[in-house]
């Protein structure tokens, strides 16, 4: 009986209904192995990047709650900076995956060239605006609490300004990695981003507290270390697409290529990435408002929120890695005219997500106090309060894991199919409307503390799953053009 239940949940012939099949399906072992070959490097890459980012936060947290809040305050303005590039990357991954499935290598390379030119132009403009308006943005993000904490505001402005100077470097590296993921070369992006973040951690050690003969720069040192890591990442990413000989890959760039805008490539990028841009702008606006509401709870609870956000980001990366695999596999198989395999691999990635979420939820539940204590110096002011608030809030984080990871994987599957407009509409409403409204209700009306605010705020994830799952299962995305 248990074997039959297990098979109904996991077997390919049970995941794709007979009327949807266009040919022979792979056996269960092959299907799950194929998905994991692409997903595992992405999961490793993103989890390690998030863990290294958490180490970054731990290093700054050793300076106290003010420093922890100072690097947290620029988070949402920085995400607003990056949202157009996140959208661009969604389009790049989906289009390159489709072109590879169609065996159109030159079209895939033209997509990458056009995307790089767009990324460079946009990033220079956004970086310039961000540097000029750094302080007003930090005040907007922090609200009335920003003026009450001048040191936090000053450090946050310095951090955000330094990171803004490196925006073009970051945007170009992200663009190349997104294209590599579309070809299924997730190991390449894994090594690029791992090396970049390890360099970041090394210079954090040198510059935050002043080690190995380097000056003590505290929060500014953390930003400079990040910029150095980004620069190293861009050099490595460029090498993966410009190397010749035996190192030449499916995607290849040369100064002798046609570096001019190609109409077909641009239309595809704008069509797919434009819908994702709507989503990203809505999502980032919602997170911006949400973060401002949480900042109004004061430095202690906001520092605890930063700890929980680090853990949320780590768990999110498991779903994001599976979502990357789903995007690539769905797109490639649609290019090969095998929509049934696209549906199969989307569901296989979702099944992996459910299994991983159960493990993550249990780990967070049982080790929440130990995890919280890693992020703030034990001897610093109010450390015990910060740890207590964070540990209580992690109960919410543990409970939401299955829904969080499922929503990310399902949205990745729909993006791979080019169904970005649907994903954009649902995600935008959930994050830019439902989440802030629920947070305002929790903080301003019910006067709840951090845990209650997270319960209300994260309830929108349930809405996303309720819309994404039936949409993918319906197969309405099969005829989308990219």
Structure explained in plain terms:
By secondary structure, the chain is mainly α. It has one domain. Helix content is 81%, strand content 0%. The protein has 20 helices and no strands. Helix 6 packs parallel to helix 13, helix 14 runs parallel beside helix 17 and helix 15 packs antiparallel against helix 17. The two termini are 44 Å apart. The mean pLDDT is 84.
Strand content: under 5%
Number of helices: 20
- Largest pleated sheet: none
Enumerate the spans where pLDDT stays under 50 for 5 or more consecutive residues.
none
- Based on secondary structure, the structural category is mainly alpha
What's the overall average pLDDT, rounded? 84
What is the helical fraction, as a range of percent? over 70%
Oligomerization category of the chains in this entry: single chain
Order of helices and strands: HHHHHHHHHHHHHHHHHHHH
Strand segment count: 0
Rg result = 22 Å
How many domains? The number is 1
Gap from first CA to last CA: 44 Å
- Shape type: globular
Entry summary:
This protein has 482 residues and is mostly helical. The protein is 81% helix and 0% strand.
Brief descriptors of the model:
482 residues, mainly alpha, 20 helices, 81% helix, 0% strand, globular
Secondary-structure blueprint:
Layout: H1 2-10, H2 12-15, H3 28-61, H4 65-72, H5 75-101, H6 105-132, H7 134-142, H8 144-148, H9 150-165, H10 167-182, H11 186-207, H12 218-242, H13 263-295, H14 299-335, H15 339-366, H16 368-373, H17 383-416, H18 420-445, H19 450-457, H20 460-474
């Amino acid at each position: 009986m248990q074997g039959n239940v297990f098979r109904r949940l996991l077997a390919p012939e049970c995941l794709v209904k007979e009327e949807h099949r266009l040919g022979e399906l792979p056996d269960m072992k092959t299907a799950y192995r194929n998905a994991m070959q692409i997903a595992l490097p992405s999961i490793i890459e993103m989890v390690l990047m998030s863990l290294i980012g958490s180490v970054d936060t731990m290093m700054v947290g050793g300076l106290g709650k003010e420093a922890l809040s100072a690097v947290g305050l620029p988070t949402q303005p920085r995400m607003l900076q990056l949202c157009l590039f996140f959208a661009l990357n969604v389009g790049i991954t989906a289009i390159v995956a489709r072109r590879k499935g169609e065996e159109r290598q030159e079209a895939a390379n033209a997509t990458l060239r056009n995307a790089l030119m767009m990324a460079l132009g946009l990033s220079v403009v956004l970086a310039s605006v961000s540097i000029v308006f750094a302080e007003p943005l930090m005040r907007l993000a922090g609200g009335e609490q920003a003026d009450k904490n001048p040191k936090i505001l000053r450090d946050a402005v310095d951090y955000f300004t330094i990171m803004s100077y490196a925006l073009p470097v970051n945007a170009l590296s992200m663009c190349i990695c997104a294209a590599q993921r579309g070809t299924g070369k997730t190991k390449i992006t894994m090594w690029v981003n791992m090396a970049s973040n390890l360099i970041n951690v090394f210079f954090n050690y040198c510059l935050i507290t002043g080690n190995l003969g380097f000056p003590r720069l505290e929060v500014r040192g953390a930003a400079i270390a990040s910029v150095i890591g980004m620069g190293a990442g861009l050099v490595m990413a460029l090498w993966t697409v410009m190397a010749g000989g035996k190192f030449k890959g499916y995607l290849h760039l040369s100064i002798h290529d046609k570096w001019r805008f190609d109409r077909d490539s641009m239309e595809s990028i704008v069509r797919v990435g434009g819908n994702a841009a709507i989503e990203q702008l809505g999502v980032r606006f919602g997170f911006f408002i949400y973060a401002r509401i949480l900042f109004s709870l004061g430095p202690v609870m906001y520092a605890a929120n930063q700890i929980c956000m680090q853990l949320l980001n780590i768990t999110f990366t498991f779903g994001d890695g599976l979502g990357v695999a789903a995007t690539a596999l769905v797109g490639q198989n649609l290019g090969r005219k095998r929509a049934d395999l696209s549906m199969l691999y989307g569901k296989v990635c979702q099944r992996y997500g459910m299994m991983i979420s159960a493990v993550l939820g249990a780990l967070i539940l049982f080790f929440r106090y130990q995890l919280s204590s890693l992020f703030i110096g034990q001897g610093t002011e109010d450390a015990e309060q910060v740890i207590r608030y964070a540990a209580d809030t992690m109960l919410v984080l543990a409970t939401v894991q299955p829904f969080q990871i499922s929503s990310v994987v399902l949205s990745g599957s729909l993006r791979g199919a080019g169904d970005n407009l649907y994903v954009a509409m649902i995600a935008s409403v959930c994050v830019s409307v439902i989440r802030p409204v629920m947070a305002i209700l929790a903080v301003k009306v019910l006067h709840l503390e951090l845990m209650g605010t997270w319960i209300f705020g994260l309830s929108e994830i349930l809405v996303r799953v309720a819309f994404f799952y039936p949409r993918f299962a319906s197969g309405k995305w099969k005829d989308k053009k990219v």
